[in-house]
């Protein structure tokens, strides 16, 4: 081989080695410092006054009872989330509705969504590593989430209340 080919191979190997070292440092930093939790703005923009909205036309969806999700055990004890029409995602990821600071929770751990027909809620484990428990049963498929039944995700326990 020529001297130029050997030099190019050496530089390429050196660059690959540095990429590997930087990747390892990034993983170690994430493991040591944990995931970044970002603060969210929770207040909603107020409606404009003086302008009335027209009632929706067509068949109306059945009215869902107001429900709240309450953290009863864990680092976020006392936190409440009002449940609406949109699904609620719970986990350690910054894109979750409820961001848990729990090392036993997955990035996207559980989804709580409205049941079909507008009466009640379903809870679904999103293939989490450590699992989710509704009452004493481990979740393996979407199941109805009844008020007062504890939902355990790692060290965090949540309840549905009306």
In short:
This protein is of the alpha+beta class and 162 residues long. Helix content is 19%, strand content 26%.
Overview of this protein structure:
- 19% of the residues lie in helices and 26% in strands.
- By secondary structure, the chain is an alpha+beta fold.
- Strands 2-1-11-10-7-8 form a six-stranded antiparallel β-sheet, with no helix packed on it.
- A hairpin with a 2-residue loop joins strand 7 and strand 8.
- The chain starts with a helix and ends with a strand.
Overview features:
alpha+beta, about 160 residues, single chain, 6-stranded antiparallel beta sheet, 5-stranded mixed beta sheet
Number of DSSP helices?
Answer: 1
Got a strand count?
Answer: 11
- H/E element order: HEEEEEEEEEEE
The secondary-structure class comes to alpha+beta
- Main pleated sheet: 6 strands, antiparallel
Return residue spans where pLDDT drops below 50 for at least 5 consecutive residues.
none
What is the terminal separation in angstroms? Answer: 77 Å
Beta-strand percent range = 25-35%
- As a percent range, the share of helical residues equals 10-25%
């Amino acid at each position: 081989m020529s001297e130029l080919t050997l030099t190019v191979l050496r530089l390429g190997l050196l660059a690959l080695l540095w990429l590997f070292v930087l990747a390892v440092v990034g993983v170690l930093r994430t493991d040591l410092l944990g995931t970044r939790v970002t603060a969210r703005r929770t207040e909603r923009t107020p409606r404009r006054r003086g302008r009335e909205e027209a009632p929706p036309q067509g068949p109306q969806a059945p009215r869902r009872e107001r429900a709240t999700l309450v953290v009863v055990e864990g680092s976020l004890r006392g936190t409440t989330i009002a449940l609406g029409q949109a699904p609620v995602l719970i986990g350690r990821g910054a894109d979750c509705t409820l961001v848990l600071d729990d090392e036993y929770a997955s990035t996207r751990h559980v989804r709580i969504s409205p049941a079909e027909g507008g009466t009640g809620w379903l809870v679904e484990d999103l293939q989490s590593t450590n699992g989710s428990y509704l009452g004493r049963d481990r979740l393996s498929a979407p199941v109805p989430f009844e008020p007062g039944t504890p939902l355990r995700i790692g060290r965090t326990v949540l309840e549905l209340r009306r």
